[in-house]
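Q: Given only this backbone (172 positions), what sequence would you predict?
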């Protein structure tokens, strides 16, 4: 019944949404409605927990891949970039580990790694913006590699729960 109410309320909002409405504004209105209707500050909590568990189940194997790679930083970047598959894995039941390995074999579609590495050697700080809870686990592999460089690292997360994005509560 709550899902029907949410869908009906969202449907009623659609005619008032204009191209000029910034997407984050529309999403925040929808999220507020979902939180109000479900009477919870974090309606995606169980999904985040599943995503984190899925990532943690394969984390050590992925850490071994990074540690044993001829270029651990590049491997960690690829893993961090492929973390979105964890979120998809929950909803469409794909084989997450297999999908990550396939993506790593293909590499980046656009590979600016050498430019990144040159800039990394001369930068004083790096900001990484955490996204979804499961993929944040893979970001941890990247953060470990980046700590080897003489740069300040900042990992930003959401202050309040939004969808299945990582918050300070889940960050490790």
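A: Predicted residues:
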């Amino acid at each position: 019944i709550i899902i029907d109410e949410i869908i009906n309320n969202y449907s009623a909002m659609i005619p008032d949404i204009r191209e000029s409405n910034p997407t984050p504004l529309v999403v925040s209105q929808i999220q507020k409605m979902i939180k109000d209707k479900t009477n919870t500050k974090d309606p995606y909590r169980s999904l985040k927990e599943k995503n984190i568990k899925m990532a943690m189940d394969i984390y050590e194997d992925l850490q071994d891949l990074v540690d044993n790679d001829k270029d651990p930083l590049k491997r960690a970047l690829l893993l961090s970039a492929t973390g979105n598959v964890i979120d998809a894995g929950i909803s469409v039941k794909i084989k997450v580990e297999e999908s990550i390995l396939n993506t790593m074999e293909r590499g980046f579609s656009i590979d600016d790694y050498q430019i990144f590495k040159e800039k990394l050697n001369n930068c004083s700080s790096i900001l990484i913006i955490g996204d979804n809870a499961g993929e944040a686990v893979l970001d941890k592999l990247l953060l470990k590699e980046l700590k080897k460089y003489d740069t300040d690292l900042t990992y930003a997360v959401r202050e309040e729960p939004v969808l299945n994005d990582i918050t300070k509560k889940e960050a490790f």
